[in-house]
Amino acid sequence: MIITGKYPNLRLRRNRKTDWSRRLVQENNLSVNDLILPIFIVDGKNKIESVKSMPGIYRHTVDKIPLIIDRAVKYKIPMVALFPHTSSKLKNNSGLEAINENNLICKAIRLIKKKYKNKIGIMCDVALDPYTSHGHDGLLEKGKILNDETIEILIRQSLLQAEMGCDVIAPSDMMDGRIGKIRKALDKNKFQNVQILSYAAKYASSFYGPFREAVGSKRSLKGDKKTYQMDFNNSAEALREIALDIKEGADMVMIKPGMPYLDIIKSAKENFKIPILAYQVSGEYSMIKNAINKKIVDKNIIIETLSAFKRAGASAVVTYFADEVAKFLE
Ligand code: PBG
Question: Which of left, alpha, beta for 93 (phi over 0: left; psi -120 to 50: alpha)?
Answer without folding.
Answer: alpha
